[in-house]
Specification:
InterPro entries: SLC26A/SulP_dom (IPR011547), SLC26A/SulP_fam (IPR001902). It is found in: Membrane. Keywords: Membrane, Transmembrane, Transmembrane helix. It is a multi-pass membrane protein. This protein is an all-alpha fold. It has one domain. Helix content is about 70%, strand content about 0%. The protein is built from 18 helices and 2 strands. A two-stranded antiparallel sheet has the order 1-2. The longest helix has about 35 residues. The model has no long low-confidence stretch (mean pLDDT about 90).
């Protein structure tokens, strides 16, 4: 197996590359901080786990992965599965499932399975992604509007029904902060695409909550203070019964991590003109998920939005990803109290826009205008993801997609 990309790039590393990587790493860290906090909260995990994952997994993905510019950490694609695992097995179950998923990814990298990503139909990827986007958006409505709806169920339709009955409890102050933050993110992204507008917008919205003493939830008011250090590594509790119980969840985490990281690396290649090493990428993702689990973090993978920001900010090598991880760590250690004052509707606005970007209208139109078999795969996996279960959706979609591919190949052979 070829070495991680970091080892290759360091052979010719120079000062100009370091300066470019330093600027990009700090810039992408400013994007990663609010996103990591928001993803952890939406997943039903303690907010600090998002930052811990960005630091540990982000460092390991850049150190051992197969892409020059990939940025790793917690991503929106995991919100659904993480929430489900925590609900069914507790947070300790999530940690063990993440640890197992890391081992599965390491094995996949050693077996050189990276090239098989091409076998997953595009319509299945798009359908599952849009389904996850719908679930994320639904999960953020309570915090965006400030509804007094108590604890909500995980299922989308019952959740929306409860929110509708609680519509009279809408908080004008909460909605105003959410709308302001959303507007600032969009304006700053359009006017200053290389500027860390996410953090600035969320900070402005949250700052107004503090200055005006608005009745709006913040991280510290809901979850308490953030820690200012990384936890010591420790192995999760492992038993045979627990391993068997969590194997399906670990398989889903591993599949999602491998799929999203390789897709992100492929898109990064198109942006940079470089070529990633898929098997090294899987190996790096596996090491990162094992490392994240050892410190009680979340599942991690290559993050497309952060990777694109890294490229746009001028990153040259994986060193940018290492600097991103160190920058997030510095914020965790030096500014944890300030991060605790980030407002919940501001973070909800961030995730609502992230959900929109996961499934923009162009993706939906592409799925609906495709040939009928692809259209069925797209709509079927979308509906199954939203209404049934992500595991079922992936299983049905991949099996149906492979069957369709085999049928078309047989038809083409018969025609000749």
């Amino acid at each position: 197996m070829r070495l991680p990309m970091l080892f290759h790039t360091l052979k010719t590393y120079d000062k100009s590359q370091f300066l470019a990587d330093f600027q990009a790493g700090v810039t992408v860290a400013m994007v990663a901080i609010p996103l990591s906090l928001a993803i952890a909260i939406a997943s039903g995990a303690p907010p600090a786990t998002g930052l811990i994952t960005a630091v540990v997994a982000g460092f390991l993905i850049s150190a051992f992965g197969g892409s020059r510019v990939q940025i790793g950490g917690p991503t929106g694609a995991f919100i659904v599965v993480v929430f489900s695992v925590i609900m069914d097995h507790g947070y300790d179950g999530l940690v063990l499932a993440t640890f197992m998923a890391g081992g599965i990814l390491i094995l996949a990298g050693l077996l050189r399975l990276g090239r098989f990503i091409a076998l997953v139909p595009e319509s299945v990827v798009e359908g599952v992604t849009c389904g996850i986007a719908v679930i994320i958006a639904a999960s953020q409505l309570k915090d965006f509007f400030g509804f007094d709806a108590g604890t909500l169920p995980a299922e989308v339709l019952p959740k929306l029904a409860i929110l509708w009955t609680a519509r009279d409890s809408l908080s004008p102050a909460t909605l105003a902060i959410g709308l302001l933050t959303m507007g600032l993110i969009l304006v700053l992204k359009r006017l200053y695409p290389k500027f860390p507008g996410l953090l600035v917008a969320v900070s402005i919205g949250s700052g107004l909550v503090v200055l005006l003493q608005l009745p709006v939830d913040t991280i510290v008011s809901r979850f308490g203070a953030l820690p200012d250090h990384l936890p010591w590594p420790q192995l999760p509790v492992i038993t045979i019964a627990r391993l068997i119980e969590l194997l399906p969840s670990a398989m889903v985490i591993a599949f999602l991590a491998g799929l999203e990281s390789l897709l992100s690396a492929m898109i990064a290649d198109k942006m940079t003109g470089e070529t990633h090493r898929p098997n090294a990428e899987l190996l790096g993702q596996g090491i990162a998920n094992v490392g994240s689990a050892l410190v009680g973090g979340l599942p991690a993978t290559g993050a497309l939005a952060r990777t694109a920001t890294n490229v746009q900010a001028g990153a040259k090598t994986p060193v940018a990803g290492l600097i991103h991880a160190f920058t997030v760590l510095a914020v965790l250690m030096l500014a944890a109290p300030l991060a605790g004052y980030l407002a919940m509707p501001a973070l909800a606005a961030l995730l609502l826009l992230a959900a929109w970007n996961m499934c923009p209208p162009a993706t939906v139109l592409h799925g609906l205008k495709a040939a009928w078999p692809e259209r069925v795969l797209f709509l079927g996996t979308l509906v199954l993801t939203v209404l049934v279960d992500l595991t079922v959706s992936l299983g049905v979609g991949i099996v149906a997609g492979l069957a369709l591919r085999a049928w078309r190949q047989r038809s083409a052979t018969s025609a000749h």
